[in-house]
Specification:
With 447 residues, the chain is an all-alpha fold. Helices cover 40% and strands 1% of the residues. The N and C termini lie far apart (88 Å). It is found in: Plastid, Chloroplast.
Length: 447
C-alpha cells in the first residue's frame, strides 16, 4: 500500500486515523471511487489480525452501520490499488458463501428487480463511484495467460471473501459490500459476480453515462481458496504511468483505446489528501457535498458521467480540479493521445467506446450459466420497427397516388400496424413485396 506521500493512481477511501503500521499503509488511494461515510465512518479501522481475533463481527462492523452518505472518489483503470504491501484482513463473515444458498445461475426476474433496488440506493447515497469500483476490482484480477477457471481470476464474485477483500487494492470495499448486501439477501438467486457487475453498470448509466451492453449468468466461486493471489491489480505510483497501464491492462486483454476510454470514468468522484496523498482538502466544487463534503474532484460535476474529464485534463486551466500522473499520460503518450483527443471533441464516440470497454471488462474471466449468458434489458430498449410512411416507397420522381397510399395503409393496419405503433420490419416488407408481385402480375396480364 502506498504511503500518502507517494504518487498514487488510485482513489482514496475513508479510513480512520491510523493506530498502527498496517492501518497507515491502508491510507493510500483505492480505485474508482470510495464510499463516503457519515461522521460515524471516521471510526472505521483496519484491525490487526491479533486484534480482530478477539472481537466479534458485530463489534468490528458496528462503526459502519450508521453511515448515510458516500464519499465518492472513482477511479479508472487505475481502479485498483498497489499490491506487494502488507495487507490487513477486514473480516466480514456475512459475505461468505455459507450465508446464502448456493446459486450458480442468476434468475432473470430477480436481476431486473435488483437493478431497480440499486437505482434507489444510488438516489439516496450517491455511491456511484464505489459501486463502479466494486465491479472493476472483481473483474480486474483476470489474467488472459491462464485458461483454467477460477485460477484465471476475473468476474467470479471472489471479492466477497476476506482473503481477497483484505488485499491492499481493495481497502474500503467492505463498505460497498455492506451497501449491497441487503439487496443480495433480498434476491438470493442472483450471484455475487452478477450483482457486482450489475451495480457497476447501473451506476454508470444512472450518472448519465451510456447504456452498457451487459449480459449476466456469471457463476460464483464457492470458497476463499479460489481467490486470486494478491498482486494482479495496478500499482499506486508507477515510475512510468503509461507503461504500467499497458502492462496491467494488456494482461487483461485490453488495448490502448479501451484503456483511455475506461480512464474516462474519472469523470466521477473526488480524491482526499488525508487518504490518498492526492488532492486538496476541499474545493469550491466539493465543499458542499453531496454526502460528506471535501476532497478534490477531477471534474466540476463529479457525479455526472460525460466527456468533461478529457476536456479538463487537456486544458488544465482550473486549479480546483485534480490531474494525476496517469491522467496526464493520456495526452503525453502518442498512442493514448489519439483517443483522448477524439473524446475531447466527440462525446458520442467516447460513450460508444466506453460502453464496449466496460462490458468487455465485466466479462473478463467469467464462466456463464447458461454459456451464452442472460440479457435482461426490456424489449423496449431494442431498436423499434420501421414506422409507416407510404411516400417513402415512391419510385423515381413519381409520387404514389392517394388511392395507392390508402391501399398500402389498409394492408399495413390489417397486420396490426399504425402510425404510433411500428410494425416489425419483416411484416412491412412482406406487404410491399406482395403488392409489388400483384402489380407485376396485373401488368403482365394486361399486356
Amino acid at each position: 500500500m502506498e504511503s500518502p506521500k507517494r504518487p498514487s493512481i488510485c482513489r482514496s477511501f475513508p479510513v480512520a486515523a491510523p493506530t498502527n503500521t498496517i492501518s497507515t499503509k491502508f491510507m493510500a488511494a483505492t480505485a474508482l471511487g470510495s464510499v463516503a461515510a457519515s461522521s460515524a465512518s471516521s471510526t472505521t479501522r483496519f484491525l490487526s489480525t491479533a486484534t480482530r481475533a478477539t472481537l466479534p463481527f458485530s463489534s468490528r462492523s458496528s462503526s459502519l452501520s450508521s453511515f448515510k452518505f458516500l464519499r465518492s472518489a472513482p477511479l479508472i483503470s487505475h481502479l485498483f490499488l498497489n499490491q506487494g504491501r502488507p495487507s490487513s484482513c477486514v473480516s466480514i463473515r456475512r459475505f461468505n458463501a455459507a450465508s446464502h444458498p448456493k446459486c450458480l445461475a442468476s434468475d432473470p426476474e430477480q436481476l431486473k428487480s435488483a437493478r431497480e433496488d440499486i437505482k434507489e440506493l444510488l438516489k439516496t447515497t450517491f455511491c456511484h463511484p464505489i459501486l463502479v469500483r466494486l465491479g472493476w476490482h472483481d473483474a480486474g484480477t483476470y489474467n488472459k495467460n491462464i485458461e483454467e477457471w477460477p485460477q484465471r481470476g476475473g468476474a467470479n464474485g471472489s471479492l466477497r471473501f476476506d482473503v481477497e477483500l483484505g488485499h491492499g487494492a481493495n481497502a474500503g470495499l467492505v463498505n460497498a459490500l455492506k451497501l449491497i448486501e441487503p439487496i443480495k439477501k433480498k434476491y438470493s438467486n442472483v450471484t455475487y459476480a452478477d450483482l457486482f457487475q450489475l451495480a457497476s453498470a447501473t451506476a454508470i448509466e444512472e450518472a448519465g453515462g451510456p447504456k452498457i451492453p451487459m449480459k449476466y449468468g456469471r457463476v460464483d466461486v464457492v470458497g476463499p481458496e479460489q481467490c486470486p493471489e494478491e498482486g494482479r491489480l495496478p500499482d499506486a505510483g508507477p515510475p512510468s504511468p503509461a507503461a504500467h497501464l499497458r502492462e496491467v491492462f494488456y494482461r487483461m486483454g485490453l488495448n490502448d483505446r479501451e484503456i483511455v476510454a475506461l480512464s474516462g470514468a474519472h469523470t466521477l468522484g473526488r480524491s482526499r489528501p488525508e487518504r490518498s496523498g492526492w488532492g486538496k482538502p476541499e474545493t469550491k466544487y466539493t465543499k458542499d457535498g453531496p454526502g460528506a463534503p471535501g476532497g478534490q474532484s477531477w471534474t466540476v460535476q463529479w457525479l455526472k458521467f460525460n466527456n468533461s474529464y478529457f476536456k479538463d485534463i487537456k486544458e488544465r486551466r482550473d486549479e480546483e480540479l485534480l490531474v494525476l500522473p496517469t491522467d496526464a499520460a493520456l495526452f503525453e503518450d502518442p498512442s493514448f493521445k489519439v483517443y483522448a483527443e477524439k473524446y475531447v471533441e466527440d462525446q458520442e464516440a467516447f460513450f460508444k467506446d466506453y460502453a464496449e470497454a466496460h462490458a468487455k471488462l465485466s466479462n473478463l474471466g467469467a464462466k456463464f450459466d447458461p454459456p451464452e449468458g442472460i440479457v435482461i434489458d426490456d424489449a423496449s430498449s431494442k431498436p423499434a420497427g420501421e414506422k409507416f410512411d407510404a411516400a417513402k416507397y415512391s419510385y423515381g420522381k413519381r409520387e404514389l397516388s392517394d388511392s395507392m397510399k390508402q391501399k398500402i395503409r389498409a394492408e399495413y393496419e390489417s397486420f396490426g400496424g399504425s402510425p404510433d405503433k411500428p410494425l416489425p420490419t419483416n411484416y412491412f416488407l412482406n406487404i410491399i413485396l406482395v403488392i409489388a408481385v400483384l402489380a407485376i402480375l396485373t401488368s403482365l396480364l394486361g399486356n
